[in-house]
């Protein structure tokens, strides 16, 4: 679920993440974003009964979160452009994620689905040589790869152990650097013990 969401969000990467300052989101806000990301459009009243259970893993000392705290968090998320509110035909209030909210939901997700898959013993390697006049694109590429989970092997060489073909393709095309980036799948990297430890494989 989150892997698919991540790929879709990367399509909007240049227009969302690089132009807008990150918003500070508390534990309650993260839980709300997660619930809406999974369920889609959510009725505000329908959100309240289940949100306490979703928040529980994030709250160590508090077993109960008051509804007013939840409403306050929802209002803050709407004010910061992460959620948007609308009204259904029956007059009920609905909330859903904005593009920016979907990005934040991805960043606060605990893991990426691909990490739970069995490693196929192939390393995904991205090597790039981007011209100086594309400094912005180079910076955005590095940031996106770091967020996705790639590890820097050497200067301009990044590595990842799980399938990510679509992610790399979308990123290259969106940034306009298809001819400056080389994507490889290799079965052997010398002295890869530290990489295995980092990726826990």
Report on the architecture of this protein:
With 201 residues, this protein is an alpha+beta fold. The protein folds into two domains: 2-107, Orthogonal Bundle (Arc Repressor Mutant, subunit A), CATH 1.10.10; 114-199, Alpha-Beta Plaits, CATH 3.30.70.240. Helices cover 46% and strands 16% of the residues. It is built from nine helices and seven strands. It has helices spanning 2-11, 13-16, 27-39, 44-55, 67-79, 99-107, 135-148, 165-175, 193-199, and strands at 42-43, 83-87, 93-97, 123-128, 151-154, 157-160, 181-186. The strands form two sheets. A four-stranded antiparallel sheet has the order 5-6-4-7, covered by helices on one side. A three-stranded antiparallel sheet has the order 1-3-2. A hairpin with a 5-residue loop joins strand 2 (83-87) and strand 3 (93-97). Helix 1 runs parallel beside helix 8 and helix 3 packs across helix 6. The two termini are 22 Å apart.
Short description:
The chain is α+β, with helices and mostly antiparallel strands and 201 residues long. 46% of the residues lie in helices and 16% in strands.
First-residue to last-residue Cα separation: 22 Å
Q: What gyration radius follows from the Cα positions, in whole Å?
A: 19 Å
- Which CATH architecture of the largest domain is right? Orthogonal Bundle
Assembly context of the chains: single chain
Using the alpha-carbon principal axes, give the shape: elongated
Unreliable spans: 11-19
Biggest sheet, in brief? 4 strands, antiparallel
The CATH class assignment of the largest domain is Mainly Alpha
Number of helical regions? 9
Number of domains: 2
Helix content: 40-55%
Mean pLDDT: 76
Query: What's the total number of strands?
Result: 7
């Amino acid at each position: 679920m989150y892997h698919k969401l991540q790929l879709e969000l990367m399509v909007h990467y240049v227009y969302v993440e690089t132009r807008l300052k990150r918003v500070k989101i508390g534990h309650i806000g993260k839980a709300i974003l997660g619930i809406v990301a999974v369920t889609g459009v959510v009725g505000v009243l329908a959100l309240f009964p289940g949100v306490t259970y979703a928040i529980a893993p994030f709250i160590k000392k508090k077993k109960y979160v008051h509804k007013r705290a939840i409403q306050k968090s929802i209002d803050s998320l709407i004010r910061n452009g992460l959620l948007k509110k609308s009204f259904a035909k029956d007059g009920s209030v609905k909330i859903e994620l904005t593009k920016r909210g979907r990005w934040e939901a991805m960043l606060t997700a605990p893991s990426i689905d691909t990490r739970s898959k069995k490693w196929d013993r192939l390393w995904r390697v991205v090597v790039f040589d981007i011209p100086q006049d594309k400094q912005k694109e180079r910076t955005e590429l590095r940031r996106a790869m770091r967020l996705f989970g790639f590890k820097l092997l050497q200067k301009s060489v990044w590595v990842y152990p799980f399938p990510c073909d679509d992610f790399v393709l979308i990123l290259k095309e969106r940034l306009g650097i298809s001819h400056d980036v080389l994507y490889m799948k290799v079965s052997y990297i010398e002295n890869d013990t530290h990489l295995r430890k980092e990726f826990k494989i």
